[in-house]
Amino acid sequence: MTSGTPWDIEAYDVETYLDQIGVAGAYRAPLNLELVSRVHSGHVRTYPFSNVQVLLGDHPGVTAHAVQQSMVDHQRGGYCFEHSQLFAGVLQRLGFSVELFLGRVHAPDNSRTHLSVVVTLDDHSYLCDPGFGFSLREPMLISENNEHIEGDRTFTLIKHGSAASEVWELRRDGEPQHFTDRLPVLPVDVRSGHLVTSTAGFGPFTDHLMVMRHTAEGHVTVTEEARTIRSAGQSTRREKLDPVDTASAVEALGVHMTSYEKERLAERITDMQHRPGAPSTRKEI
């Protein structure tokens, strides 16, 4: 994200963002790993991962101005293209060295539809992943076979290839999460990825509800089937919900909706629950 590329980072209301995530005054803080960690942790605990706007057919797109309006102004959540652009843009506005990279979710032969962030400090690079549903809560040092423990979850980085073919695989508890290359990324690449993930037939976002966030209670996931709560050291809790309660659970996770939008979402959930083959056995992201 250099000054010569059209990322439009001036679109972000940095002060409001920092206030929302509980890191007000970061403009005056030293540019160090502690500050990156505070912003990362505050971000994933404040803004939900959500595909609600894709399901409702009213997604505004992933330009910087659309991300600002959706994530900060209207607090509607979003997925990786929104989260990572906002997070990276704010860090760059604060003065950090930041890069965006695309990756492939779950398998190395999937399309490049995940966007993550790399921050470089004192010759060390750190993976930041604010836009992956159940991912890191803080930066992870990019080092071969590095293990990073958060609660009862272990994240591991595996390096594949070198130079132009270099790819870093992130695993959670031994399971592949995404494979991220180090090729340059431009805004048009992000818009192209969004076009794929928001178009029917190219992935799960148009067919399944996925809303999740790290909360004080633990990591909470809401799908069209249930609400699932995972807390370190405790058994996973799964609560089956009806469509109306599911829409309310989505709102409780921080996706702001009008009454009409909640009704539409409940209708979509009803349709998904009654389609052939439901419920799904998809992997969680």
**Biggest β-sheet: count, sense, barrel?**
8 strands, antiparallel
Topology order in helix (H) and strand (E) letters: HHEHHHEEEEEEEEHEEEEHH
Rg value: 18 Å
Sheet with most strands: strand arrangement: 5-4-3-2-9-8-7-6
Query: What is the tally of beta strands?
Result: 13
Which regions have little confidence, pLDDT < 50, spanning 5+ residues?
none
Shape estimate: globular
Quickly count the helices: 8
> What do the pLDDT scores average to?
93
> Helix/strand/pairing class, anyone?
alpha+beta
Share of helical residues: 25-40%
Distance between the termini: 25 Å
Beta-strand percent range: 25-35%
Features:
285 residues, alpha+beta, eight-stranded antiparallel sheet, five-stranded antiparallel sheet, 31% helix, globular
